[in-house]
Amino acid sequence: MKFKWQLFWLITFFCVLGTIALAYIAFTSNPPSGSTIFIEVTKTLFLCLGGIGVILPVYINATNSIEARYENRIENTFTLLQKWDDSHFLAARKLTRELKSTRQSISDNQLIEQINDNQELRQSVILLFNYFDQVRFSLTANRVDKVAFKSSLGAVISDIIIRFEPFIKTISNEAGIQDLEQLKKLLS
Asked: What is the DSSP secondary structure assignment for residue 29, as one 8-state letter?
C-alpha cells in the first residue's frame, strides 16, 4: 500500500470533479415542473457528497484490511521464528546438533538404532518434526511470509530433515512422508 494516500486524494479529486460536473449539468438543464434550479443543484450536491461519504470510507477500510492482513502474516512469521528458540526446542536442537557431527560416519540403520535407544533424543527429534509440520502448514496456508521464513530457517530445517529422514520414515505413514517432501520443496 505504498501509494495509499496518493490514490485516496486521486479518488477524492475525481469525486469532487464529478460533483462539480453534475451540479453544472443540473444548473444548466431545465428543472422538472414544480422545482427550481437551486433545489435541483442542492439535491445533486448532497447526493454526490453522500456518495463520496460512502466511497472514501470503503476505500480506507479496504486498504486498512489489506495492511492488517500483511502485518498479521509478518507477526505470524516472527512468532513461528521465535518458537524455534523455545527452551524445549533448544534442548532438542542441542541433541540433534551432537548427532550431526557423527551422522556422516554412521549408517541409516545405526542412526535409527541410536535414536530409538535414547528416549530423550527420540522425543527431541519427534518434537522438532512436529514443529516442522506446523511450519509446513503455515507456509501452505499462507499464514507466514514464505520469503522471510525461508531466508531465516529454510536451510537449517532442510538440513535437519535430510539428516533424520531415515528415522522419520520408520515412524511416519505415507502422508507424513509426503508432508516432509512438500516442506522440503517449500523451503528449497
From this structure: S
Grid cell of 76 as nine digits: 505470524
Other beta carbons less than 10 A from residue 27's beta carbon: 13
DSSP calls for 102-119 = HHTTS-HHHHHHHHHH-H
Q: At CB < 8 A and 24+ separation, what contacts does 10-13 make? A: 11/55, 11/56, 11/59, 12/52, 12/56
C-alpha grid cell, residue 135: 511450519
pLDDT in tens, 111-163: 788 888 888 778 888 888 889 999 999 999 989 999 999 988 888 888 888 88
Q: Would the pTM of this model clear 0.90, i.e. be above it?
A: no
- Contact residues for 179 (Cβ-Cβ < 8 A; gap 6+): 133, 136
The residue count of the chain comes to: 188
Structure confidence by residue, pLDDT tens digits, 116-130: 888 877 888 888 888
Query: C-alpha 185: how far from its chain's center?
Result: 18
